């Protein structure tokens, strides 16, 4: 059994970095859809997924919920990366704009989230999803509530 870190004693950035190096991570949305971590810095986070047939919407392209989940994840964790130990957050609002359809045939999507403002009770962030050719697929913004 893997010993999980004591999250109450770790800053958001420390926790995120510790979680991605754990060999046996606790269940999470990233594992469910195959997210792979990339950049994890103070105020900036990047995750990747490779599309697959079970991401399909009824028209046979990637369901918008995949990009929304990627954006919610990178923007929220970008906020989390700025928080001190013992402080949590939750998505209060999520806005997504879809730019182009994406095939389900193994296309790598890279999502990057960066903070805009982190205050005492709320934070905002923005994010973008690009395909393997560097084309913008979706972008969004979020407002997070900070739990102190």
Rg (CA only): 15 Å
Structural class given helices, strands, pairing? alpha+beta
Strand order of the largest sheet: 1-2-4-5-6-3
Run of helices and strands: HHEEHEEEE
CATH architecture type: Roll
The N- to C-terminal Cα distance equals 31 Å
Q: What portion of residues is helical?
A: 10-25%
What's the number of structural domains?
1
Could you name the CATH topology? Answer: Thiol Ester Dehydrase, Chain A
CATH class term: Alpha Beta
DSSP strand tally: 6
* Uncertain stretches: none
- What fraction of the residues are assigned to beta strands by DSSP? 35-45%
Shape: globular
| Average predicted local confidence, pLDDT | 94
Largest sheet: 6 strands, antiparallel
By CATH, the superfamily comes out as Hotdog Thioesterase
Write the layout of secondary structure elements.
Layout: H1 12-21, H2 29-33, E1 36-41, E2 44-50, H3 64-80, E3 88-98, E4 108-118, E5 122-130, E6 136-147
Antiparallel strand pairs: 1-2, 2-4, 3-6, 4-5, 5-6
Q: Could you explain the architecture of this structure?
A:
The protein has helices spanning 12-21, 29-33, 64-80, and strands at residues 36-41, 44-50, 88-98, 108-118, 122-130, 136-147. It is an alpha+beta fold and 148 residues long. The protein has a single domain (7-147), classed as Hotdog Thioesterase (Thiol Ester Dehydrase, Chain A, Roll), CATH 3.10.129. The longest helix has 17 residues, at 64-80. The radius of gyration is 15 Å and the shape is globular. The N and C termini lie far apart (31 Å). Pfam families: 4HBT (PF03061). Residues 60-138 form the Thioesterase domain. GO terms for molecular function: 1,4-dihydroxy-2-naphthoyl-CoA thioesterase activity. Keywords: Hydrolase.
């Amino acid at each position: 059994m893997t010993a999980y870190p004591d999250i109450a004693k770790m800053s958001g950035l420390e926790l995120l970095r510790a979680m991605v190096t754990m060999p046996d991570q606790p269940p999470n949305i990233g594992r469910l859809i195959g997210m792979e971590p990339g950049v994890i810095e103070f105020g900036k986070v990047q995750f990747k997924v490779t599309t697959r047939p079970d991401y399909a919407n009824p028209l046979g392209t990637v369901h918008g919920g995949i990009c929304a989940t990627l954006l919610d994840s990178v923007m929220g964790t970008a906020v989390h990366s700025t928080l001190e130990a013992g402080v949590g957050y939750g998505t209060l609002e999520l806005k997504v704009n879809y730019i182009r359809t994406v095939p389900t045939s193994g296309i790598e999507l890279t999502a990057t989230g960066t903070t805009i403002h982190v205050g005492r009770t709320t934070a905002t962030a923005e994010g973008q999803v690009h395909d393997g050719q560097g084309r913008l697929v979706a972008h969004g913004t979020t407002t997070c509530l900070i739990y102190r």
